[in-house]
Structure to design on (444 residues):
């Protein structure tokens, strides 16, 4: 059981690490909605 | 066989992709097993999720090995995949230098549309397969699309800047459409082809409507690695970047595609690893896997850019923000979206990382004749994504028919 948790922790950490690198590279902070004209 | 060989060594620049992948997971090993984990650089939106205790080092090494194996497995599966795009081209109705005009209109009396793609990726993303073809879908809706395929710069285009491409390629192509059909055309541009289309919409009286998809306009709000590249390009008043691009194009005849692909890859360096991991787990006979193969083939099949056009794109547009600043001129006329006189529709993807919506929305913001659609899609997804036909192609086709 402990072994499974350890592996799951490693997977979750690497998922987070990949997402972190992606966001750092793009600095992907949610932008406010700047729409001024209505969509068709 | 020849085409399979072309995948070996791709995606370009492969050494950059592999090196970045190894560096990224090596850093993860160091960070993950550190007792100081929370103090590594986390994006502000993820600091709350950062683990507070070190991860078991053996488990981490095991999982990193798994992921690296998946990356190389996915890469080899793509390189050796038997699927290839097989669509045949429609008739070429006009040609100048390396550029060609392809007639996608079986319905010859249908309203014509000049379709302008990017200069740095091949035009066939707009006609990727029978099931995913913006051009064939528009034809089925009752339009006659003419695709301007810029082609790779040859001797005739080596000195072309973007204004010359407009003056000596796009405008003559438009004139040819007017001659063939005897009527004004709609204009549809994708990516930087959309930015070019907007300039043409201001310059030419021979069009009736403008549609852009993912067309960048304002480069003042760059973030992340894109901001870093912008700042390095601005050093020494841009002279170093201008010299580098000039030297590259002098040496190779044009700025090589590997240079341009390196810039694209820098926008999200970990994307190579994550997408080939995903691919390695797909059923290789599935339609999703074939679509992945077609898109990767297209991404790997970019076009070199003439030196002056590269200086326009990377220095004048990206670094100096010449378009939004009112400093981009074509035929001696300053390009200004406020002077576009035809009905316009601008499609700005909410998930577009190549042309982010804070850049693309600046075009309709300045153009008082503009309508906006904001699909929840990325740059390529707007063309070939699952919902692209319903949320992008059909609305823009209806718009062009309405104003034909």
């Amino acid at each position: 059981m402990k072994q499974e948790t350890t592996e799951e922790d490693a997977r979750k950490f690497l998922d987070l690490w990949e997402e972190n690198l992606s966001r750092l590279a793009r600095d992907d902070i949610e932008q406010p909605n700047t729409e001024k004209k209505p969509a068709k | 066989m020849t085409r399979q060989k072309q995948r070996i060594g791709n995606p370009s620049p492969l050494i950059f992709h592999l090196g970045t992948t190894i560096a990224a997971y090596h850093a993860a090993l160091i960070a993950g097993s550190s007792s100081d984990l929370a103090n590594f650089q986390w994006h502000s939106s993820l600091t709350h999720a950062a683990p507070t205790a070190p991860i078991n080092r053996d488990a981490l090494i095991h999982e990193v090995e798994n992921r690296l194996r998946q990356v190389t497995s996915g890469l080899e599966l793509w390189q050796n995949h038997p699927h290839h795009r097989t669509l045949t081209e429609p008739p070429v109705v006009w040609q100048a230098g390396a550029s060609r005009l392809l007639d996608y209109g079986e319905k010859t009396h249908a309203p014509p549309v000049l379709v302008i793609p990017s200069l740095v990726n091949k035009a066939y993303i707009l006609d990727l397969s029978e099931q995913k073809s913006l051009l064939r879908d528009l034809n089925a809706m009752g339009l006659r699309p003419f695709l301007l395929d810029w082609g790779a710069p040859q001797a005739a285009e080596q000195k072309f800047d973007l204004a010359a491409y407009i003056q000596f390629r796009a405008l003559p192509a438009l004139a040819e459409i007017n001659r063939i059909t005897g009527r004004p055309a709609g204009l549809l541009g994708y990516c930087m082809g959309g930015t070019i289309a907007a300039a043409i919409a201001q310059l030419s009286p021979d069009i009736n409507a403008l549609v852009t998809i993912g067309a960048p306009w304002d480069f003042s709000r760059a973030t992340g690695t894109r901001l870093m590249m912008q700042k390095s390009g601005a050093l020494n008043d841009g002279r170093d970047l201008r010299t580098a691009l000039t030297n590259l194009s002098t040496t190779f005849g044009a700025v090589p595609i590997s240079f341009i692909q390196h810039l694209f890859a820098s926008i999200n360096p970990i994307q190579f690893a994550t997408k080939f991991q995903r691919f390695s787990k797909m059923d290789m006979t599935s339609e999703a896997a074939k679509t992945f193969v077609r898109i990767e083939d297209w991404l790997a099949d970019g076009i070199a850019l003439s030196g002056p056009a590269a200086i326009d794109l990377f220095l004048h547009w990206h670094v100096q923000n010449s378009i939004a600043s009112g400093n981009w001129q074509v035929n001696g006329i300053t390009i200004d979206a406020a002077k576009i006189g035809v009905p316009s529709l601008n499609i700005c993807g909410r998930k577009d990382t190549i042309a982010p919506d804070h850049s693309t929305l600046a075009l309709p913001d300045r153009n008082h004749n503009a309508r906006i659609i904001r699909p929840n899609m990325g740059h390529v997804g707007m063309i070939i994504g699952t919902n692209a036909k319903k949320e992008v192609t059909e609305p823009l086709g209806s718009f062009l028919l309405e104003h034909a």
About this structure: The radius of gyration of chain A is 18 Å. Chain A has a mean pLDDT of 74. The helical segments of chain A are 2-26. Chain A is about 60% helix and 0% strand.
